[in-house]
Every structure is written in C-alpha cells, then in structure tokens.
Amino acid sequence: MTASVQPQSILQPPARAAMFLVLTVRDGAESEAVDLLADLPGLIRSVRFRRPEDNLTCVAGIGAKAWDRMYDVPRPASLHVLEEIVGDKHTAVSTPGDLLFHLRAERMDLCFELARQLMIRLADTADVVDEVHGFRYFDDRDLLGFVDGTENPEGNAAAAAVFVHDEDPSYTGSSYVIVQKYLHDLTSWNAISVREQELVIGRTKLDDIELPDADKPSNSHVELNTIVDDDGVEHDIIRDNMAFGEVGSDEFGTYFIGYAADPGVIEQMLRNMFVGKPPGNHDRILDFSTAVTGNLFFVPTADFLEDGPPETAADDDPAPTTSTTEQDTGSLQIGSLRGTDQ
Ligand code: HEM
Q1: Ligand 1 proximity of 263 Cβ (cutoff 6 Å)
Q2: Does the Cβ of 293 fall within 6 Å of ligand 1?
Q3: Which of 98, 130, 148, 328 is catalytic?
Q4: By CB distance 3.0 to 4.6 Å, which of 106, 189, 242, 274 could disulfide with 54?
C-alpha cells in the first residue's frame, strides 16, 4: 500500500486574474492560523464550485519565522528568511510576511470572494501587509510591453523544477516560492527606443523571439536569469508574474512570483540581477523597476495543510508518493512525481 501526497495547485495555465496576499500572524494566534490552513482546501472548494469552469485555485505559503511559531517540527531544509541583496545601484529588499495566499482564476470575482472568506476567518489572527490585485495584460505581456512567461518549463520539466523530491523526503511534493512587488518607471522606459528595450530584456518586443547570443547583452534580463551549473545543467523555475497598477497615482507594476524546488536557484537569479554577473554588471530591467517587497515562503503539500506535519500525519505509512488530481493533471503532468511504490 502507498500513501499519496497531494501537492498544492502550483502548476496552472496562465489565469486572467490573480490576488497576492501577504500577511503577518499575530502573536498568540498561531494555532488559529494552522486551523485556517487546514480548512483552506474546503474554502477553495466552496467558492470554486460556484464557477468550476473558471478554475479558482489558491496556493498557501508559510514564512520561516511563522513556521517556527506554528509547527513543532524542524523547518523544511531550505526555508529561511529572504536575505536582502544589495548591489552597487539596486537592492532586493526583504520585507515582513508570515503567510502568502496566491489566488488565481479566470475572473477576479472568484479570487475576491475567496480572499474575503479567508479574511473573515483571519480577522483576529493575521494582518494583511501587502495586497495586490493582478491582471493578465494583452498577449500575456507585462506593463513594459514584453510577453512574460514564455520560457517557463512545461510538463515533466515543470514538475521537476518546482517540487521537492528526494532531497528532503519528509517534504516530497512541497515547493518554495519567492515574491517581489516591482514598480516601473514607465516614463523612462518609454523614452528609450524599442530596440534598446529589446536589449534590456534579451528578446524581441513584438514577436517575443530570444535575441541571438551575439546580440544579447550580458546585462540583459534573459542572460542574467539563465542559470547553468558547472555540469552544464540549466536550472529552471516557474514564474507567474502579473501586471497591476493605478493610473491615477502613476503606479505601474509587475508582481513577480517564482516557484522552485530549491529556492537557491531563484536567489542566484536575484544575485545575478542585483549584484550583477560579474559584479557591477546588473540587470538593466532594474534601472526601470524597483523592488518594494520581497519574501520567501515554503509551500507545503495540500495534505500537510489539512493533516499537519508528516511525522504525525503519516506515522502508519511514511513513504510518500504523489498523486494526480483533476486540477493538476493535463499538460503539467504532476503524476510524473509518482514512483516510490513500496
Ligand atoms: C524572463 C519580465 C523579474 C526570472 C523574463 C521575460 C520577461 C520578464 C519579459 C522574457 C520572457 C519569458 O521567458 O518569460 C520580468 C519583469 C520582472 C521580472 C517585468 C520584474 C520587474 C524577474 C525576477 C526573476 C526573473 C525577479 C528571478 C529572480 C526570469 C527567468 C526568465 C525570465 C528565469 C527566463 C529566462 C530564460 O530562460 O530565457 N522575465 N521579469 N524575472 N525572467 Fe523575468
């Protein structure tokens, strides 16, 4: 007999709408926060069932400090507070955050309704320190006008990139997520030519084709975010950035969200962007974009949320395997994680 591990709904096709809620948990309210996370799958089902075709999902993440307060088991191997990264010109800030809720759907009303239900439950437990309502802009473009998300891995490669496997067996099927809220200086951005913008990103603007190596500057966004190790293996992450903004206050932003089995891959990308590779050769996207938040969260499995830490939940059957669900099947093949039959 095998136990099955149900990941949260990380691998999703691009949704039209998203909400990003970062909260801090009040002192003394830790057990209420744990209870809410246990009820999260049920709350999602309640709202989702009203419009199943609009594919409402919600991924919950837990910050390092909150983990220590909420659970009696050791932190997952790579969970820590995001370190601030200070470059010559630009800084990746690290800001408070105990819980992340990443809500996605084809319609904002579903995200909003689930967020409302979450906050009814969390009213005396947690405080929202950042809330962003994101929308998918034309052709999946960000507000810089470039198609965003093209090089995300798919299928087995996506599952391999985001889910913890043997490296931390107690947490198979879990993941890590880093979020950063960026504000763009669109006036400066739009003052440079389209060709110049293409050299900043490393892809063409209209057609979204990667520039040939000979034309791609070493400080382009794409070049600095391609992580290849000493063995020539490329390390991928899954991104699902969303545009947000307020025209009245000249606010134009990108909410960056990146999932990975090893958050060190995203942190390496951040060092390349902010410190530069080599140092000083920073990502030119930062000359037009300022990171105003930054957090790292652990994303446990759905089973963990409902049942608690695996040591207590799976005493009678400790060898986990993953299973597929309706939400996570399709081209994304989470089922490829299956395979530790006893
Ligand atoms: C690629 C936009 C922040 C990691 C891209 C692309 C765009 C883009 C337009 C090219 C198309 C694609 O493959 O998606 C942005 C914007 C950001 C931002 C507007 C915020 C201002 C970040 C951050 C990271 C990151 C903070 C990681 C820490 C990546 C990666 C790629 C990529 C891994 C694919 C590189 C490749 O293999 O070609 N981004 N990005 N991005 N970005 Fe970002």
Answers
A1: no
A2: no
A3: 148
A4: 106
- Which residue has the CA at smallest separation from atom 4 of ligand 1? 225
Structure tokens at 149: 């998300």
Q: Is 39 a catalytic residue?
A: no
Q: Which residue has the least CA distance to atom 3 on ligand 1?
A: 256
pLDDT class for 99, splitting at 50, 70, 90?
very high
Q: What is the pLDDT of residues 217-231, one digit of tens each?
A: 999 999 999 999 999
Q: What is the pTM of this model?
A: 0.92
Q: Determine the angle formed by the axes of helices 30-48 and 108-122, rounding to 10 degrees.
A: 150
Q: Where are the domains of the chain?
A: 3-317
Take residue 16 and report the two structure tokens written for it: 């039209």
Instruction: Kindly state the tokens that stand for 148.
Output: 């965003």
Regarding the beta carbon of 144 and ligand 1, being less than 6 Å apart is answered: yes
* Cβ neighbours around 253 below 10 Å, total: 22
Give residue-wise pLDDT tens across range 231-245: 999 999 999 999 999
| 98 close to ligand 1 (CB < 6 Angstrom) | no
ipTM, 2 decimals? 0.99
Q: With contact defined as beta carbons under 8 Å apart, do 309 and 274 qualify?
A: no
